[in-house]
């Protein structure tokens, strides 16, 4: 949902469990930036495919990990994913890999099970950026 919103400025309510690679250019500070976004839904099957996940990590230059503020399990998986990314990327170089944690569905505050403070503290402890969006 976040990727489609970024690319099209539209909100679509229903999404499948499909993996896509999108390309999109954007002017930032007077320069054209080309984004290649590998949008991967989280699922139990993919969690078991270590080599596919390793391939995605090697492909990417930065990471945006999205969880639902209404779904504790989507939040709880983040530390392991971030450690996996850092081990794969930072082990090869001394550069810090850019990772941002995004709490989604902020508009559903009445269904919230993960507090903003928990998200901020996790990001701080893992040296990542943090945002909440809807």
Automatic annotation (TrEMBL):
One of its GO terms (molecular function) is G protein activity. The keyword Hydrolase applies. Keywords: GTP-binding, Hydrolase, Nucleotide-binding. PROSITE patterns: RAB (PS51419), RAS (PS51421). It catalyses: GTP + H2O = GDP + phosphate + H(+). Pfam families: Ras (PF00071). The keyword GTP-binding applies. Its EC number is 3.6.5.2. Belongs to the small GTPase superfamily. Ras family. This is small monomeric GTPase. It comes from Tauraco erythrolophus. The lineage of its organism: Eukaryota, Metazoa, Chordata, Craniata, Vertebrata.
């Amino acid at each position: 949902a976040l990727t489609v919103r970024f690319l099209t400025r539209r909100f679509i309510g229903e999404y499948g469990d499909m993996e896509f690679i999108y390309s999109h250019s954007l002017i930032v500070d007077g320069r054209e930036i080309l984004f290649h976004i590998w949008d991967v839904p989280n699922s139990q099957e993919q969690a078991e495919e270590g080599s596919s996940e390793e391939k995605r990590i090697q492909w990417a230059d930065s990471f945006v990990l999205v969880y639902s503020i209404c779904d504790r399990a989507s939040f709880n998986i983040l530390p392991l994913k971030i450690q996996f990314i850092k081990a794969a990327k930072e082990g090869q170089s001394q550069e810090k890999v850019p990772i941002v944690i995004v709490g989604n569905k902020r508009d559903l505050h009445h269904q919230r099970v993960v507090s903003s403070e928990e998200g901020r503290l996790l990001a701080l402890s893992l040296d990542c950026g943090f945002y909440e969006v809807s």
